[in-house]
């Protein structure tokens, strides 16, 4: 089945679809030995495509996996310190997948991995505003005013965070801790930890329970599953089902 050239390039991991369009327009792509600059060009699986003289690697089947990331695993394709990565956890997946976004070394929970570069870029774009639900065990018990601050936005590294949802789901008065469910749609570095630290409640333990409409309530730590067709379509359409258990 013929596909648009820029889509084939994006699916093969060359670049995002937009970046692939620029490569085509600038004359860096050939199809069956001829330079192609027309963005509407379609190619068949049998066509020979080269980018800057290098053959396009065989187009892989697009796959989508949801992992319940364990603690102590790096969200990366490889690590120069030989620490275990999320790719090591998905050792029996033959396609070259990569994580969408990241979770800290000591943070557990929902992580999407795919080889669909177009969808990955869409999900990580700030305008997409996909919900990410975190369950955080913190020191101390946040006051109503502190929860309100979290909801309205906290200044982190000189910039105010977007509005969020924040609720206490559990208290341990003897230990002086609380469990908070925090829903954000941004993806700044250490954002949840920095937000809670900013209101005086450092994180003890952090788990991402849900990414968009995908939760890991039925997956043990280190387990993963392939997404169903309808789930992939929901992610692509931007539709989200809001549900969460608040467990940590």
Automatic annotation (TrEMBL):
EC number(s) on file: 5.4.99.-
GO BP: any one term: enzyme-directed rRNA pseudouridine synthesis
Any GO MF annotation of the entry: RNA binding
Gene Ontology CC entries for this record: cytosol
UniProt enzyme class: isomerase
Keyword annotations: Isomerase, RNA-binding
UniProt-listed SMART domains: S4
PANTHER family attached to this UniProt entry: PSEUDOURIDINE SYNTHASE FAMILY PROTEIN-RELATED, RNA-BINDING S4 DOMAIN-CONTAINING PROTEIN
Stated family: Belongs to the pseudouridine synthase RsuA family.
Name of this protein: Pseudouridine synthase
